[in-house]
Design goal:
By secondary structure, the chain is α+β, with helices and mostly antiparallel strands. The protein is built from twelve helices and 15 strands. Strands 1-6-7-8-3-13 form a six-stranded mixed β-sheet, with helices on both faces. Helix 4 (162-176) packs across helix 5. It is globular and about 60 Å long. The two termini are 37 Å apart.
């Protein structure tokens, strides 16, 4: 059966001032070019880039004044260190691939910081901006303020996930700090160009027999027969006409600490609580009191389970694991949260996330011309109602070693795949930051706000129980 569908439950885990372009310098050369084929998830984002957003946007609020002149050399150093920041798409004997030979610098856009929420507008714009040839597949936006500045690091989702983006921003904070020269010397050595995930998996972890594949297909069929969507489609729109809406929410440190303590006492995790609260918010959007089978996707960071973990934090080293839960209007949040944990724990224990990813590799086309047909198949499947990514507590640098990092956020596209909500969460300095992402206009602004507010209210109430 599809992991997580067994009878026994299973889990893991501003102002309109004119913009200025920073002076550009050529990215440093790091030797001979290398080429490697894309794996399935990398190919997914490559295949849909012609008609759908493909950027991940990681944002750091830095406690100080940052200028474009200071930022440009730091970005050049990071581009020399991380091979994927010098990548472009190429063709290797008819197979889509990365070529690591881009010498152009990362584009840098600079504008004044027009208040603490200016990053939301700019992150939304960055989510939808394309990455034109010949590369690189990453760029940066600076919101320059006196007391605080935001740096928005946007990169093609094929290059990796938010965990890698946060690591790049941490390195950037060190390069911009009082001891930037020491950081530059420490980070000068280029990291080995990361391989595809399949190059790092332990032998046998991703093997699937014909019998296992049949069981997964049968499990999917049973789920699709039982599913009933809880969130109706407000306004249909073609894939190319959709945009990702970003709604930020947060829990202050006292509430975040209470939620973590309560989750531990209930035998689950904060991730489980986030999934449960979001599922209940979705269920509240449908009439009736009957329990509905909802699918929730959880990206599992697989780096720790690899035979040879890559040294570079950049890279797509996550597996998207769907779990399925019967949710009624009155289903207790903590029962749902425990179910999420059990399902994900079972998937990780069996290393089933590698088999799910291996099957995904088989489904993604090698021809970009087939990308839209592939995306429409995903759309019709409607396997999951929502997705939750929780990167947990983030260790962030501060003075005197680095420019202080006051907050970290991330956002990802939400227009392809059928999910009505993606929840991107991270905890910094005790505050739980949550970005709710939804496909506009499929989900109306009013409905998206209700789902976000109901999720946060559910988390607050759960933290205060007992």
């Amino acid at each position: 059966m599809l992991p997580g569908t067994e009878a026994t439950e299973a889990e893991a885990t501003e102002a309109d001032a004119p913009e200025t372009e920073a002076p550009e310098t050529e990215a440093p050369s790091t030797g001979a070019a290398a080429v490697r084929p894309l794996d399935g998830f990398e190919r997914h984002w490559w295949a849909i880039q012609g008609f759908a957003p493909v950027a991940v946007v990681c944002t750091a609020r830095l406690g100080g004044h940052v200028t474009a002149d200071r930022l440009r050399p730091a970005l050049s150093a990071l581009q020399a260190r991380h091979g994927l920041l010098r990548a472009r798409f190429a063709d290797q004997h008819g197979v889509p691939a990365f070529a690591f030979d881009v010498r152009a610098p990362m584009p840098l856009r600079a504008l004044p910081r027009a208040g603490p929420d200016a990053w939301v507008r700019e992150a939304t714009e960055e989510l939808h901006a394309s990455f034109g040839p010949p590369g690189p597949l990453a760029r940066c936006t600076l919101l320059e303020g006196e007391a605080a500045s935001e740096v928005l690091f946007a990169f093609h989702h094929a290059l990796g996930d938010a965990s890698g983006g946060f690591e790049v921003l941490r390195e950037l904070a060190h390069l911009l700090g009082p001891r930037g020269a020491d950081a530059a010397a420490r980070l000068r050595e280029p990291l080995p160009i990361p391989g595809a995930l399949r190059d790092h998996v332990r032998p046998g972890d991703d093997a699937t027999s014909a019998r296992q594949r049949l069981r997964i297909v049968m499990g999917v069929a049973r789920i699709l027969a039982a599913r009933r969507a809880s969130v109706p489609q407000d306004h249909p729109a073609a894939l190319a006409e959709r945009r990702t809406r970003l709604l930020p929410r947060m829990l202050e440190p006292s509430a975040t600490e209470g939620l973590a303590a309560r989750a531990k006492a209930e035998g689950t995790t904060v991730h489980g609580a986030l999934c449960a609260a979001a599922m209940l918010a979705h269920r509240a959007e449908a009439p009736g009191t009957d329990a509905r089978l909802l699918g929730c996707a959880s990206p599992v960071n697989v780096r720790r389970y690899l035979a040879t973990p890559p040294r570079d934090a950049m890279g797509f080293y996550a597996a998207i694991v769907p779990t399925f839960h019967r949710v009624g209007r009155d289903t207790p949040l903590w029962d749902l949260a425990r179910g999420v944990r059990r399902r994900l724990d079972d998937v990780v224990a069996q290393r089933a996330m590698f088999r799910v990813r291996a099957l995904f590799d088989r489904a993604v086309p090698l021809d970009a011309a087939r990308g839209e047909a592939y995306a429409m198949r995903l759309e019709r499947l409607k396997l999951v109602e929502l997705g939750v990514t929780n990167l947990g507590r983030q260790e962030v640098p501060g003075a005197p070693d680095a420019m202080p990092v006051e907050a970290l956020h991330f956002a990802a596209p939400a227009t392809v795949g059928g999910a009505k909500t993606l929840l991107a969460a991270t905890t910094v300095h005790g505050t739980l930051h949550m970005n709710f992402l939804s496909p506009d206009p499929l989900v109306s602004a009013e409905r998206a706000a209700r789902i976000a507010d109901a999720t946060v209210a559910g988390l607050r109430a759960a933290a205060q129980e007992g």
